[in-house]
């Protein structure tokens, strides 16, 4: 039996909104899934754009209203809530790894002597950023497909490239806002997340029951004697013969 979730110790009014259920979640009709997927995606993207597009603090620092890769994230965390790649570990870890990788590789290419040389190799910087982030996400167990675009944008998008290291807190805040909306909209008639850090281990396979049925030998099916039985009978007959 897997150990009980720590969320089970919390009051039900709180644990429900963190994805805990004491029993299986009933399957909802398709139109319910479509409705909450739409509401979640709309609310999540709108909230991110409202924060970064309207707050003067971010406007003064040249932060774009949204990092485009979060559009793909919305498809996962609002439309495919049960998918392993849509869970919070990948959401936060994947985008952070992608942003960090993209920044580091882009800054290395900025060491080139001229801006013209940098621009001519921009395709290489973007390709390396995306490919390296894919491997790092695999190694860290934080694979989140939209995060590949997060790494790519750090190299090829001028606005994001100009943010430098400030890109990291922007990505973390974007993930937090997206998750907050997901915890609300996905837990009204569905369940999210399925897990926070590690997936639940699968139940152990049932123990094999010993079989009490035996297959009769081919020689005894039709009442025939097996060779070993014939040898025993012959030996007994020899003992009883008179000398």
TrEMBL record:
InterPro entries registered for this protein in UniProt: HPP (IPR007065), TM_HPP (IPR058581)
Alphabetical keyword list: Membrane, Transmembrane, Transmembrane helix
Compositional bias segments (type: Pro residues): 199-208
Domain annotation HPP transmembrane region: ranges: 27-193
Basic and acidic residues bias: start-end ranges: 223-243
Region of interest (Disordered), residue spans: 199-243
Cleavable signal peptide: none
Transmembrane portions of the chain: 31-51, 63-80, 92-109, 121-144, 164-184
Keyword Cell wall biogenesis/degradation: no
Keyword Magnesium belongs to the record: no
Designated name of the protein: HPP-domain-containing protein
Organism expressing this protein natively: Pholiota conissans
């Amino acid at each position: 039996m897997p150990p009980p979730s720590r969320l089970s110790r919390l009051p039900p009014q709180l644990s429900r909104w963190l994805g805990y259920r004491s029993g299986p979640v009933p399957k909802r009709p398709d139109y319910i899934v479509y409705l909450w997927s739409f509401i979640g995606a709309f609310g999540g993207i709108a909230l991110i754009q409202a924060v970064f597009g309207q707050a003067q603090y971010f406007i003064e620092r040249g932060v774009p209203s949204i990092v485009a890769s979060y559009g793909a994230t919305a498809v996962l965390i609002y439309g495919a809530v049960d998918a392993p790649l849509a869970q919070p570990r990948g959401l936060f870890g994947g985008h952070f790894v992608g942003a960090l990788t993209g920044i580091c590789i882009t800054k290395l290419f900025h060491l080139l002597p001229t801006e013209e040389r940098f621009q001519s190799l921009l395709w290489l910087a973007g390709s390396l950023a995306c490919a390296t982030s894919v491997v790092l996400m695999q190694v860290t167990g934080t694979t989140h497909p939209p995060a590949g675009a997060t790494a790519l944008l750090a190299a090829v998008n001028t606005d994001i490239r100009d943010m430098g290291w400030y890109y990291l807190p922007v990505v973390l805040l974007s993930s937090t806002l997206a998750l907050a909306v997901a915890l609300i909209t996905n837990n009204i008639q569905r369940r999210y997340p399925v897990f926070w850090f590690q997936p639940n281990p699968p139940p152990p396979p049932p123990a094999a029951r010993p079989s009490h049925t035996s297959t009769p030998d081919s020689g005894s099916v039709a009442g025939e004697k097996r060779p070993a039985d014939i040898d025993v009978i012959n030996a007994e007959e020899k003992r009883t013969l008179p000398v």
